[in-house]
Specification:
274 residues; TIM Barrel; 38% helix; globular; nuclease
């Protein structure tokens, strides 16, 4: 089995998409996972490529020069106050850059609304040949595997799938054996990282760890091997933000160690795909 890895946006948050692409190539990645949808979060740069034509050209050149491929773009959130049509320019960017998937998550408790908007998002993505990968987040509105599968089954969209984040899977308390019931075609990539065994009691601490203090693969206590062996062979996007290490090592060395530890972990196990 040949594992393929993507460098996710949050791992090298301060790098522009072209910088991140060149960095990913030097560090040995196969893909990049970019965030050309600006979310307006505190301290987060704006990499909206649809609005920044120069950065878009530079990103396209970086992908062509390095041979790195765009795996996915993020994050098409389903919210009370965001029209899914707002994401169409980013979908156009993804299609032009050869991307395959759009990552989405749900941040409203209004089920009728989020079902309607999720289905609309899937329909908007179809002309671009893109899939919509639904990720659950313990601090969002759809918070675990069961809820996410319920959405996907109810939506019944051929281009919709499930994106498991190893961190969120652990924090949600999901059971590894429940992955066996997921249709194999719903798995297209996953987010890889590690974390301490103890699950934070407060939302603030949860946010701090998931955005600033994730651990290298094999460094924490998540049973990654048991999760991965139940999932088909798909790309692994390493989403492993760690502010202190990125500052001390630099983004490139941090990204390189993320990949090195992941490869070492996978080499230590023989996964039997189901």
């Amino acid at each position: 089995m040949t594992n393929r890895f993507s460098l996710a946006h949050l791992t090298t948050l301060g790098c522009t998409p072209p910088e991140m692409t060149y960095l990913a190539a030097r560090a040995g990645y196969d893909f990049v996972s970019l965030r050309p949808i600006y979310m307006g979060l505190p301290g987060e740069p704006n990499y909206a490529l649809a609005e920044n034509k120069q950065m878009m050209r530079e990103t396209k050149e970086a992908l062509a020069e390095t041979g790195i491929q765009l795996l996915d773009i993020e994050l098409a959130r389903i919210c009370d106050d965001v029209d899914p049509k707002k994401y169409v320019p980013a979908m156009e960017v993804a299609a032009e850059l050869g991307g395959r998937h759009v990552l989405s998550s749900i941040w409203t408790n209004d089920r009728d609304l989020y079902m309607e908007r999720f289905i609309e998002l899937c329909e908007l993505a179809k002309p671009f040949g893109l899939t919509i990968e639904l990720e659950y987040v313990p601090i969002a509105s759809v918070t675990n595997l069961a809820e996410t599968l319920n959405v996907l089954r109810a939506a019944n969209q051929e281009n919709a799938g499930l994106m498991i984040d190893i961190h969120h899977f652990h924090r949600a308390g999901d059971k590894i054996e429940d992955l066996d019931a997921v249709p194999r075609e719903w798995f297209r990539f996953l987010h890889l990282c590690d974390a301490p065994a103890k699950i934070p009691a407060s939302k603030e601490e949860m946010i701090k760890i998931l955005r600033e203090e994730r651990l290298y693969i094999g460094e924490g206590c998540i049973d990654i091997a048991s999760i991965v062996e139940r999932i088909p062979e798909i790309p692994y996007s390493i989403e492993l933000p760690h502010n202190k290490r990125a500052q001390e090592l630099g983004y490139e060395e941090h990204a390189r160690r993320c990949l090195q530890t992941a490869k070492a972990y996978f080499e230590a196990y023989s996964f039997q795909k189901r």
